[in-house]
Amino acid sequence: MALTSLSPGPQFQLSFRDLPFRATRCWSTMPGHIMTDGASAEARDVATRFYERFQARDGAGMAALYSDAATFSDPAFPDLKGEQVGRMWRMLTSRGRDLELTFEPPVAEGPWQRVAWTARYTFSATGKKVVNHVVGRLRIEGGRIVEHRDEFDFAAWAAQAFGLVGRLLGGAGFFQRFVQGKGAKALADYTK
Asked: For residue 168, which phi and psi values (nearest 5 degrees)?
């Protein structure tokens, strides 16, 4: 405990460091949710392993870290569930032969692990080079990813991936839906 003397006589001030567990900053839809160091450390470890496997282009290893009922969303794949999530990563890592990935250490935000990462690769559909800056948020329970949300600037990505067409149309909703449709078809056709 820390002693302070803002008024006559000693006062006791309790800080989170004095508690028998360490609380992390709460960012949750569940009021009063506090994550202890043990849970946070496990979640951080899972998030780190996920991105290390991503760096190694190990789609199967990435898929193994998801729960069976996991959900995933990003601007290109907005609503994946269950087995689709792992299949997407297997597809993307198998096609990303020149993929280079860097990531920052995970940061706990309540029940989420936030990871800033950058992917450099050749977009297979057009042969154009892409540098995509992404913020991933992973909710991890029981050592498995149960929810994963990636956010990136779709218009900036489209400009790189599609060249002039992407620069002209990347900010249009219909073009994003077109890309989402192509991604959904590619994922449905992918069988590995």
From this structure: -80, -35
User: 158: which residues sit within 8 A by CB, 6+ positions away?
Assistant: 166, 167, 169, 170, 175, 176, 179
Q: CB–CB of 17/85 below 8 Å?
A: no
Tokens of 139: 């909710």
Q: What are phi and psi of 166, to 5 degrees?
A: -65, -35
Is residue 52 within 8 Å of residue 62, measured between CB atoms?
no
DSSP code for 140 = E
Measured on CA atoms in the order 79, 85, 89, 90, is the torsion positive or negative? negative
> Would you tell me how many other CB atoms lie within 10 Å of the CB of residue 166?
22
Indicate the average pLDDT of the chain: 86
- Which sign does the torsion angle of CA 72, 76, 77, 78 carry? positive
CATH code assigned to 23-152:
3.10.450.50
Burial class (CB in 10 A: 0-12, 13-18, 19+), 177: exposed
Phi and psi angles of residue 35, each rounded to the nearest 5 degrees, phi first: -105, 130
Residues 99, 132 contacting (CB under 8 angstroms)? no
Q: What is the pLDDT of residues 50-95, one digit of tens each?
A: 999 999 999 999 999 999 999 999 999 999 999 999 999 999 999 9
Separation between Cα atoms, residue 114 and residue 191, nearest integer Å: 30
For the chain, give every domain's residue range.
Answer: 23-152, 155-184
